[in-house]
Each structure stands twice: as structure tokens, then as C-alpha cells.
Amino acid sequence: MSDLASSASKKRPEFRNINAFNDLPSYRLPIAGIVSILHRVSGAIMFFLMPFIIWMFDTSISSDISFIKFKSAFNLGMLGLPGFIWKLAALALIWAYLHHAIAGLRHLWMDTHHDAVTKEFGKSSAIFTLVVSVSLAVVLGAKLFGLY
């Protein structure tokens, strides 16, 4: 009976509405939260750029003439946009795929190894995800822009 009385006498936490303009800019999101948001953003990028992905694939393998057209879009430009804009779009897709795949593997690991998931593991795996995805995107971007 005393447990019931003590739980009834405990003050319940009070919640207040947040002011998005004042409270959210001062909130410091942990690195694991940033990686989680970027996982969603990378998935959205891949979804919305799917027509571009299909065009790139179709144009690059249809014929020799279409492949030349594909290369000229990245070198000279197309639809009034210079070639580097198309390369930036391709680089965004490269990063999105890499980040989404690595973050997805991170989430699968955490889903299957509940006992190994700690706050420290979340932080270190998030840093690993960011470093590997950005590093690979930089290397592949350098290749895309002809730096090597």
C-alpha cells in the first residue's frame, strides 16, 4: 500500500509547448541523430532523382551514339545547364547511395545486436558512417571531375 501512496505523491513531469524559433536553434543534436536524419535525406534524394538515375543508365548502355550523348551532357552540359551541374547531381547521388548503404548497415547491426548497442557505440558508429561515406564520395567525386 505504501508503494501506491508514494507513486501517487510523486509529482508528474510538466511538459510545455516548444517555440520552434527559440528552442530548436539552441538544441544540439547528437552525431547519431544527424546520421539518422542524413539517412532519411539520402533515401529521399535517391527517390526523387530516380528519373535521373534511369536516364543515366538507359543513355549510357543503349548505343554508342547515346553514350556519346551521355558523355557530352557531363562534359558540355544539357538542357541549358553546364556539365558541372550534372556532375554535381551525380555526385549527390553517389554520396546518397554510399551514406544510405553504410547507415543502413549500421542500423541493421544495431537491430540484430541489441546487447552491444550503447551510447558510445552509437556515437562511434555514427562518426564511422560519416567519415567513410564522405571519404568515399570525395574519392569518387575526384574521379568524376577528372582529378585523376
Report Rg: 23 Å
Approximate strand percentage: under 5%
Major sheet: size, sense and barrel closure? none
* pLDDT averaged over residues: 86
- CATH architecture descriptor name: Up-down Bundle
Oligomer: single chain
Q: What would you give as the CATH superfamily? A: Fumarate reductase/succinate dehydrogenase, transmembrane subunit
Order of helices and strands: HHHHHHH
Query: Which consecutive residue ranges, at least 5 long each, have pLDDT under 50?
Result: none
Number of separate strands: 0
Summarize the structure.
With 148 residues, this protein is mainly alpha-helical.
Topology of this protein?
Elements: H1 2-9, H2 20-23, H3 31-48, H4 50-61, H5 64-75, H6 83-112, H7 119-144
Helix pairs in contact: 3-6, 3-7, 4-5, 5-6, 6-7
How does this structure look, described?
With 148 residues, the chain is an all-alpha fold. The protein has one domain (19-144): 3 helical TM bundles of succinate and fumarate reductases (Up-down Bundle), CATH 1.20.1300. It is 74% helix and 0% strand. It has helices at 2-9, 20-23, 31-48, 50-61, 64-75, 83-112, 119-144. α3 (31-48) packs across α6 (83-112) and α5 (64-75) packs across α6. The radius of gyration is 23 Å and the shape is elongated.
Primary descriptors:
elongated; 74% helix; mainly alpha; 148 residues; 3 helical TM bundles of succinate and fumarate reductases
